[in-house]
Amino acid sequence: MPLSEYEQRVLEQMERQLTSDDPRLANTLTSRGGRRPVTRYVVAGAGAVVGLLLLVVGAASSLPWLGALGFVVMFAAVAYAFAAPRRARSGPQGAVRPDGTVRRPSAARPAGRKQGFMSRLEERWDRRRHEGGR
């Protein structure tokens, strides 16, 4: 069932409000590409099976080091499956000096900006209080 014009307007207004209140959250919710490649899960599954087999063989043959190795392999496989894949860096990687070395750009924050999660929450709270309780 399609949305009525009123419902579409209200939904668009809510989207604009979310974008203005918390742009990082809005960007996270609208970003695509959250799917991981299937090969990552296949490799992790195979690693978990190999680790489980090593664990069982180590326990059956009374070789604790083999069981420990199996556990480590299983743990690494599961961690690999759920870890976020590294993203390729885009944009400038630095500046090339006259001698040929690369200088990385500094990641300094603007001077007047507070740091930390709690500070940002306090800023947002104060800003909402001064805007009239939104």
Describe this structure in words.
With 134 residues, this protein is mostly helical. The chain is 61% helix and 3% strand. The protein has helices spanning 5-21, 23-30, 38-60, 64-82, 117-131; strands at 95-96, 102-103. Strands 1-2 form a two-stranded antiparallel sheet. A hairpin with a 5-residue loop joins strand 1 (95-96) and strand 2 (102-103). Helix 3 packs antiparallel against helix 4. The longest helix has 23 residues, at 38-60. The chain is extended and about 70 Å long.
Count the beta strands. Answer: 2
Overall body shape? extended
Q: Helix share of residues? A: 55-70%
Main sheet strand line-up: 1-2
In what range is the share of β-strand residues? under 5%
Number of helices: 5
Distance between the termini: 32 Å
Please provide the ordered H/E string of secondary-structure elements.
Answer: HHHHEEH
Largest sheet: 2 strands, antiparallel
| Low-pLDDT stretches | none
Structural class, by secondary structure, is: mainly alpha
The mean pLDDT is 79
